[in-house]
Write a structure and sequence with these properties.
By secondary structure, the chain is α+β, with helices and mostly antiparallel strands. Helix content is about 50%, strand content about 15%. This is Restriction endonuclease.
Amino acid sequence: MDSRPFFELDLASFDEHHIKELKKFTKSAFSLEDILTTANTLKYTREIKKILDDELKEPSEDFVRFFIPLVYDGRATQSIVEEFTGIVKEARKQFINEKINERLKSALSAEDEESSNTNEPHNAKQVIEDDGIETTEEEIEGYHIVKAILRQVVDVHGVFIRDTKSYCGILLDDNNRKPICRLRFNYSNKYIGLFSNKIEEKVPIDNPDDIFKYADRIQAVIAEYDEE
């Protein structure tokens, strides 16, 4: 008998597929045959996921050699294998980042569609306040990108934009004591102000899309406020 569990559920962190599997254990849906089939599937799936995780973190020689003949016409000498080990690592990194950006941009598109249906002033090309503060289209785009990044970790209805003459602030709960980041787009050189322990670091960026590169740091700010 296999002593390892075929299914584990962490109540503090679970996904939709966990709920789908858990439903199979309810009285109305219980079937011993289905459970046994599920047990085998989940066991092998878990092991394969672990192998993939290990290979993606530190690709083995066999893993690297799998790709070489698919993209390289020469002999897979040891020096070529060593060279391709670095290439595989870089390809893995770029692939994961691109997939993350695709999901974030998809969420951003949904956010834009939602905003377009609310007739908010943020939908305007530019918003000019009575006090002379101008919220530009790039700042609005940056605001929506930040909301898309945070959608997985916080209710984005609590993420607010507050523009000033020197920067465009993005706040949690519309609270100046809870800055998420600052968009410093008012000059020829653009910066994003990233926070850690409420200390701002100004990081140069070329355009609002570069904000996606700092998704982890932006999400980490929310975790800091959750711990307060």
